[in-house]
Amino acid sequence: MLSRRLIRIKAFKTLFAYEGSHADNALTAQKTLLESCDKVKDLYYFMLNISSSLIRVAEDKIAAGMQKFRPTEEEAHPNLKFVHNRFAALLSDDPEFGRYCMRRGLQWGEYEPFVKHIYNSLITKDYYQNYMKSGVDSFEEDCQLFSCIFQDEFEDNEELESILEDMSVLWVDDLAFALNAIIAGIDETARKHLVVHPSTFLKEDDKDFALRLLAESIARYDEYFELISQHLDNWKSDRLVLTDATLIVMGITEAVVFPTIPVKVTINEYVEISKYYSTPNSRVFVNGILDRIIQEKVASGEVVKQGRGLYEQ
Description:
Blueprint lengths: L3 H17 L5 H23 L1 H17 L6 H4 L9 H8 L1 H9 L8 H11 L3 H8 L5 H14 L5 H10 L3 H22 L11 H27 L11 H16 L5 H15 L4 H19 L13
Helix pairs in contact: 1-2, 1-12, 1-13, 2-11, 2-12, 3-7, 9-11, 12-13, 13-14, 13-15, 14-15
């Protein structure tokens, strides 16, 4: 499930907290990193589980309309296409999905007002109205509706961010990734007619990459921080931004420890992360220092890459 970039971000945040708190237990830091990674999967399931909650809100609205003394024509003869959506039904009927959400407490019951706000928003949207009026009746169309819902309704939603912050301090930053993973999962469900149950890591060596990157960065932090200080021009090490130092330490560590990851990929990844988690000038600073130190280690033989093109800049 997790991309290598998100793994690097998780490792960076863990290392930053570890060094900032002057902790001394690397195994605890690794455990924290794995928990942080697993939380992304929890967020995936939590957000996906809102599908059945939206159906229940629609069912309640239809029931209330039909119970009126003088219902409108629409209330008396409601369009049931949404409440019969087969993608949502597939999720509700999937025992593994239900057990996971129940076991991890990933339910929307206490957030019913938010679910109602989302429902009231989506029923005004063209994609929903076109779905309800469409003459098509297919599982693929049902999946496409929820793909549109997850694309359109949840990003930049302050009410949702407040809910996520209450549940996990990690989730607001992870939301965009989780939503993209959900949309990809819905596309796969539409093709296979099966609920997608993602693993935290796409491959087993991704977990090994995460743990080793963090462990080696912790072990080498003091050495590489001193090395960074030696490459500062007219800049004292005590003025070095800790986020920049942490990213550069991780970049050097990755270049040294992982022989199959190209130098260009390593530098580009940490420069990109610096754009979101450090200062406006960090991109140029991280790129310059990291490139200079890695090239020195290539020349000295400390950075050795396996395969053609792995040194390309």
